[in-house]
Amino acid sequence: MILTKEQINRYLRHIIMPEISGPGQKKLLEASVIIQSESADASAPLLYYLVASGIGHISCAFKEEQGYEILFDNLRDLNSDIAITLDRIPEKICANDIDLRIILGNAEYVANSLSNSAGWIPTIIAMIRGWEGYIQVFKQQEQMRSALLVLQTAIQKCNNHFNSNDEEGIGRVFSTCLQGALTTIEVVKLILNIGTSAESPLSFNLLSMSFDNQENSDPASADFFALKAGTTDCNKSSANGTGCVSKTPKRLSEFKALIVGTGGLGSPAAYALAKAGIGTIGLVDHDTVDISNLNRQILHSVSRLGIPKVESAETFLHRQYPEVNIVKHNTNFNEDNAFEIMTGYDVIIVGVDNFPT
Predict the structure, then answer these.
(1) pTM, full prediction
(2) pLDDT for 231-241, tens place per residue?
(3) Residue among 74, 122, 80, 79 nearest 100 (CA)
(4) pLDDT computed for residue 97 by the predictor
């Protein structure tokens, strides 16, 4: 048997994909990845998805390590198949037993990390600037060197404006969460050699909801790919008083959001909202945590198998964000109770898997 019975149940949603199947999942479990990041907190969304997907060996080199103990405890509880370690010696990225490197952070951090690299392994860079994000996969060292030159030039021209964030860093929170999911997809594709990797720049802007895959662009001649610091529509409008999100009618801590479903869609939504500082989060779900949920539903874990998902989600969120008020609705969401449950919330997020709900 390629995988144990428990692993088959855990990764069933992966195994049924012909491109992955049992042998592919085994390869993911045997893969080794190193993450270089500005902080443990910035890496958290990426790490949750890598661990849920079954990337077997993960080494982390954080510039800022604060909070990594709770993060690592959660990750090990999510998936006992993986081995995750804190690596204070980034030079180990050249070791022969590392399959892939991920560099996550702002433009300066990514450029410095690339500059200080000795040796070569396939690399994914994931950059964040406020509400904008950027991903690129480098399978060839020369391609990465060319991109590094462009990145360094762009940083000099923009006088470090690449590092500016929107008020309170809210955009960075959501960009980092999306970046984690997208980067994990690239990791899986690269390790299994399936699909088309993002060797051409993939960028997004969550304020304008624009996504750009520059398939025919030359990384060596791109204008810092798609991250043009100080020139986004949001920055322009904010400067003249018509800002995108700089002015809200009330503080985020005063907002109430209802999430219907705490599975593959509701889990990342609840995590991102809590991380951003939403004051009250309502959770609606009648289901219990099952081992088959854990390949993607990042709020849950092995230690909470069999308990209601709303309780599992509350445990996860309160451990990291105790100030968030969690309102649990351990019930079906239907025409009889929908309006009663929805009363008082500012926004409702529908994260369900069926049309009747």
Answers:
(1) 0.88
(2) 444 344 333 33
(3) 122
(4) 78
